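Entry 14. Ran structure prediction on the chain below.
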Amino acid sequence: MKSRIAAALGSHSCAQEWAGSGASRQVRQALSLSRARRTMLCIAIGVLLGAQGAGAYAQDAGTSAASPSTNATINLIRLMVKKGLITQGEADGLLKQADDEAMQARQAAAPAAAPADGAQPGDVRAVYVPQNVRDQIRDQVKQEVIAQAKSEHWAEPNALPDWLDRISWFGDVHVRDESWYYSHNNSPYFIDYGTLNRTGPYDINSLTQGVTPPIFDSTQNRLNMVRLQAHIGMNVKLGDTVAAGVRIGSGGDNNPVSTTQTLGGGLIKKDIWLDQAWVRWQPASSYSITAGRMPPPFMVTDLIYSTELNFDGVATHGELPFSDDLGAFATAGGFPIQYTSTDAPEQAFGDDKANNGDKWLWAAQLGFKWQFANDATWKVALAYYYFDHMQGQLSAPCAIYTGIDYCSTDSTAPDYMQKGNTVFLLRDIVPDPSSPDNYAQPQFVGLSYNYHIADLVNKVDFKIGETPMELQAEYERNMAYHEQAAFDRYPDGLGQPVNNYQSGTTAGTNGPYKSGPVGWLVRGILGTPQPMALNEWNIALGYKYLQPDAMLDGLTDQNFHLGGTNAKGFILTADYGIAPRTWLSARYYGAKQVYGPPFTIDVVQFEISTKF
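Output, structure tokens:
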């Protein structure tokens, strides 16, 4: 009987119909395997069902074909007939064999005296398969099914193509209500030299005709602006030693220091920018080289660089552990800041084309990390950021009156500025002989100084009880700054500095010139610096001081004093986690000018953020 059942169950169609009639999940998974494995599984199940006893077959053998049986094997035989797998005669033969075997069992089990185990005459002795044997059969089949499923990726939950296993996705969204408050005592006369360069040149002679250059808003509050930041990116593991990353982000323009986008604008669609794209080769766990547009490779705060600034170029990073508690690290790199156009100026010929004045940042940082207690770590790093060719150059005498629209050093104007750095007029414009007292003087501005920044940054992390605490301290100085050089570089009053010097308390007046090369920051953060779980929190208080020429104003944080240098003041922030990877933030930036006419700006932000 068992052999005939096993032979019938070896059919693929039989196995599929059996699965549809209530088989377990493991059995249904097994049915998608090869024919040989399906046959093995069907035989095993047939043996288990056949072991229920010959009496069970005989009990239902005479049941009408139209009536469902309580015996699974009887129902299976009928289903095989219905599907045409066996004939009705073959089915009757199976049932008759079951009936004969049951009769033989009854005869063999009917002695004159009751057996010692208490069985009565006429009882049917059924074959019993112990539970441990059935468990072994089930486990063996299950293990083989799962092994093949994993190797072939057909029954594994969340199974993905192999190339997707190398990719990880990440992103964040920040929605903010932001307000800018200006002091009533602020001077209204602050020229926006960054906009002047982008939209210029500006004819300074038109000042006498009442045409003003671009002016910063310093008097009219801006309240409850809804603003947005969003990023999405992926990291790709290309092998044991190579990885790559790409990130896109929001942003109202292509400035380097912020991806913030102000909403509104007639509900127009918002811009997307390529924010990061890099490749990293890491031949050893302690050494790597990264090329492309990358996150900041240096240990920094927000004193001289915006926290959203990315670096274009090549950087190498290495780490050297001295012991379990002490180690050193070093980072170095080269980063192009600005290239001179290969065709500039467009209307010039031969030697009149601009010389190579490409601007680069060459940087190196050496640091140490010391775990001086179980929950206490000190990180300190000394860096030198050498900005090459950033200083503007006075042009050769430039005869604008002849109809040309360029001068020899226009390319030395910086591509991007905010406010604070000392600048001067780049063009040495020759008076028009036909009108020597009243002629056009279209100008760009360039930086009065070079910027070679020495920077020392410290971070100490420890705990107060179970609460994390971080202290930050940073000091930097522009080693290329020499104040008098802004006045002495060129003869006859050319190249004289402007900016806070020219922005007096009334239009067209000059205030006393004062600048400086120093910046510093101190900050304490109590709580989890980045709350990523429900009820995690932090509160931070800091003070920042940045003299006008301590750093390139175009690379500084855009929140403090709305960007730039020549600013000092307090920063108070708080974060609170309201759900996993979601938190609320409140920030206050209270800043005013270091030197020059009054220019006080308070920035208040309320934000909800999520990271994934």
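Residues 1-41, 47-58 have pLDDT under 50 and may be disordered. Will compare against last week's run tomorrow.
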